[in-house]
Specification:
This protein is mainly beta. The chain is elongated. The protein has helices at residues 44-47, 89-92, 131-134; strands spanning 5-7, 13-16, 23-25, 59-61, 68-70, 101-103, 114-116. It has a 3-stranded antiparallel beta sheet, with no helix packed on it. Strands 4-5 form a two-stranded antiparallel sheet. InterPro entries: LDL_receptor-like_sf (IPR036055), LDLR_class-A_CS (IPR023415), LDLRAD1_C (IPR057430), LDrepeatLR_classA_rpt (IPR002172). This is LRAD1 protein.
Length: 136
């Protein structure tokens, strides 16, 4: 089998198209939109039995065994697994909040351990401690 692992321009896990140049983000594979010139990212043998038919590097298994997300959704700041296992804990092994993020215990379950700094001081509570409105 062909090795299709690649890193996208923003250093995320990707899928290498047949042209050996185009690297698409993992989450664009089997999304019913052809991102590779020859449609190899939407072929039946790749997309027929998700996630089992996908190369392992494209899949992240959440702590709930019946839930999975694409590998580029791990450590993206969003709660894609529904239980934050793609953002926190040993399975995900994510770095601490980056400079564009504020570390707190969010009120919104959309986020896990950080919120985007653009939400700081916007008059809306996003952290349990209100630190996004008074400290951030």
């Amino acid at each position: 089998p062909v090795n299709r692992f690649c890193a996208t321009s923003n250093n995320q896990t990707g899928f290498l198209c047949d042209d050996r140049v185009t690297c698409i983000p993992a989450s664009q594979v089997c999304n019913r939109v052809s991102n590779c010139r020859n449609r190899e990212d939407e072929q039946e043998e790749l997309c027929g039995d998700l996630p089992h038919s996908l190369p392992g590097h494209l899949v992240f298994h959440c702590s709930n065994p019946s839930v999975w997300v694409y590998a580029d959704q791990r450590c993206n700041g969003r709660n894609d697994c529904g239980d934050c296992s793609d953002e926190t804990g040993s399975l995900a092994s994510c770095p601490l909040c980056g400079s564009e993020w504020w570390s707190c215990s969010p009120v919104l379950y959309e986020y896990c351990s950080c919120i985007p700094r653009r939400l700081c001081r916007d008059g809306i509570q996003h952290c349990h401690s209100w630190s996004d409105e008074y400290i951030c």
